[in-house]
Amino acid sequence: MTEKTIPVGCTEDPAAEHDHEAILRLVRRELPTDELLCDLADLFKLFGDTTRMKILFALMESEMCVCAIADLLGMTQSAISHQLRILKDANLVGNRREGKTIYYFLSDDHVRTIVAQGFDHLIEDYTENGERKEEP
Amino acid sequence: MTEKTIPVGCTEDPAAEHDHEAILRLVRRELPTDELLCDLADLFKLFGDTTRMKILFALMESEMCVCAIADLLGMTQSAISHQLRILKDANLVGNRREGKTIYYFLSDDHVRTIVAQGFDHLIEDYTENGERKEEP
DNA sequence: CATTCATATGTTTGTCTGTTCATATGATAG
DNA sequence: CTATCATATGAACAGACAAACATATGAATG
Fold first, then answer.
1. Taking the model in full, what pTM does it have?
2. Angle of helix B50-61 relative to helix B34-47, nearest 10 degrees?
3. How far apart are CA B76 and CA A10, in angstroms?
4. Amino acid A108: pLDDT
5. Are A98 and A66 spatial neighbours (Cβ–Cβ below 8 Å)?
6. Would you tell me the crossing angle of helices A50-61 and A77-89 to the nearest 10 degrees?
7. Mutate to test the interface with A, among B4, B6, B11, B54 (most CBs of A within 10 A)
8. Long-range contacts at A94-101 (CB < 8 A, ≥ 24 apart)
9. What is the pLDDT of residues A6-49, one digit of tens each?
10. What's the CA gap between A128 and A133, in Å, rounded?
11. Which residues on adjacent β-strands are paired with residue A81?
12. Which pLDDT score, from 0 to 100, does residue A129 have?
C-alpha cells in the first residue's frame, strides 16, 4: 500500500472506477509547457503588488522621476527604486536620463491593456454584488 | 534637519529647484483610490502563481474534479484543494457536486481574457527578442 | 576636485504564502 | 451503521519578497 508513496485522496489504481483518463489526455494535450506557464505567472506576479500597481498607474498619466513617485506614494526612494528595477528588468518600464534625474515611463501599451482587463473584471464584480462581496 | 524624518534622496524643501508639483497634482487627480488599487493587485496576485495558473489553463479545456487536477499536475490533493479554495473565494472558479466527486469550472470569461492578454505580451516578447532575452 | 543632488544597490528583517502532514467532513455502497 | 472514497480544513514549516537602513555610484555645479 505504501510502496509508491502516491498522494492520498484519489485511487492509485489505474483501473479504478473513478476514471479521468479521457479528460486527462485531452487536457494534457492542450496544456502549454511548464516554462511558458511559469513565465506567465511571473508576468502577473509583477502586477500583484500594490506599490508596483500604483507606480504603473502613475506612469500611465505621465513619465516621472524616482523622487516624484516616492513623494506621490509616501514611500522611501529606496523602495521605489527597487520596484522600478523589477519593472525595468521585465521590460514593463523604461527610463531616460536628463541631467541628474532619471525619468521612468511605460515601455509598452500591453501594460495598459492588461491592467484595463483586470480593472473591468473588478468593476463588474463591484456592480454585480452591490458594493462588496459577502455581506448580510 | 532631522525634524520631520522625511526619506532622503529628494529635497524636502517645498520650494526646491527640482519641482514635481505640477506633475504630482495631475497624477494625484487621476490616481484611483488605494482600495481599488489594492483590490486590483490582489486580483493579479491570483494569476501570479504557477500552480493556480496551471489549474486555470486546465479548466479552460474542461471542468475537472480535484483529484484529476492533482493527478495532472503531479501534486497533492491537499495542495490543489487549498488553491481551488483561493480561486473560488475570488469567484474565478465555481464547483458542482456529483455524488462523491466535486467538479470545478471557470465561473467567468474574464479569466480567459485576462490570461490571454498576458499571453500575448509574452509571445510578443519571445518573438521580439529571438528566443529569450539577454543572451550573447 | 569637492560637494551636493538624484538615484542605485547590498543587506537585513519581518511578513506573507504555498506546500505538506494529519485529520475532519460528507456522501455512497454493502 | 460502518467502511471507503473524494474532498476540505487546520497547523506547522520553509521559501519568497517587499520595505528599511546604510552606503555607493554618477552627474552637475561652484
1. 0.87
2. 70
3. 10
4. 85
5. no
6. 80
7. B54
8. A101/A65, A101/A66, A101/A67, A101/B18
9. 334 454 444 345 778 899 999 999 999 999 999 999 999 999 99
10. 9
11. none
12. 65
For residue A99, give the nucleotide whose C1' atom is nearest its CA. Answer: D27
Query: Per residue in A61-70, pLDDT tens?
Result: 999 999 999 9
User: Residue for cell digits 494625484?
Assistant: B28
Query: Are B68 and A20 within 8 A, CB to CB?
Result: yes
β-bridge mates for residue B101, sequence order: B98
Report residues of chain B scoring pLDDT below 70.
1-17, 129-136
CA atoms within 13 A on the CB side of A101: 17
The answer, for B110 touching chain A at a CB cutoff of 8 Å, is yes
CA–CA distance, A91 with B118 (Å, rounded to integer): 13
Q: Does B10 touch chain A (CB under 8 A)?
A: yes
